[in-house]
């Protein structure tokens, strides 16, 4: 049975909660959905360094040092 992106990407009001263990090759899927290279690098780094399975990207969250940020 195929599921949509709602199975692993959830809008939270000010950002997105991403279940990185919900499928195979999550970073490739994020690329297909149009996520920027900078954001995909952040996701990859956090997955490798901390073994993340969930990531909450939030407009009101803290800025992580050492990663690209954008003033939208």
Automatic annotation (TrEMBL):
<feature type="domain" description="DUF5983">
    <location>
        <begin position="5"/>
        <end position="72"/>
    </location>
</feature>
<protein>
    <recommendedName>
        <fullName>DUF5983 domain-containing protein</fullName>
    </recommendedName>
</protein>
<dbReference type="InterPro" id="IPR046025">
    <property type="entry name" value="DUF5983"/>
</dbReference>
<dbReference type="Pfam" id="PF19419">
    <property type="entry name" value="DUF5983"/>
</dbReference>
